[in-house]
Amino acid sequence: MYRTASGDVEVLLGHPGGPYFARKDDGSWSVLKGEFTDEDPWDAACREFREEVGSDVPAGPRLDLGSVRQKSGKTVVAFAVEGDLDPATSVSNDFEMEWPRGSGLMKSFPEIDRVEWFALDDARRKMLPAQVAFLDALGNQL
């Protein structure tokens, strides 16, 4: 999601939840995303947005931002829509994992522990490096 605030473009990014990202900030934020196989990529993006933010994607034209391959090997396909969202209202689904590792204890964590709006220059610093290409694609289409 993107918006224009005081003449500047801002993007909504999510910070991954769970213990591995608890102390990480720069270089760890992401577009809201998830996995899909046989599902239409746009339908998957709308589903994942709803799961990670707790609200539907705003109606309106969508921009195709292409795809990138992350360091992990995961390919991410991204779209952008114009809209606005109060980060304080965001509610993510949870996932379970063994924590601490090797303890046999299962704990629940939010998939996305927070979302925030960032100006494009700040987003470049906050995002996973491979995903910065999405900001360039967005800028080229606005």
TrEMBL record:
InterPro entries attached here? NUDIX_hydrolase-like_dom_sf (IPR015797), NUDIX_hydrolase_dom (IPR000086), Nudix_hydrolase_domain (IPR051325)
Where does the record place the Nudix hydrolase domain?
Answer: 1-142
GO terms in the biological process aspect are: AMP biosynthetic process; ATP biosynthetic process
Source domain of life is: Bacteria
Pfam family membership, one: NUDIX
GO MF entries: bis(5'-nucleosyl)-tetraphosphatase (asymmetrical) activity
User: Where does the chain cross the membrane?
Assistant: none
The entry's protein name is Phosphohydrolase
Q: Which organism is it from?
A: Rhodococcoides trifolii
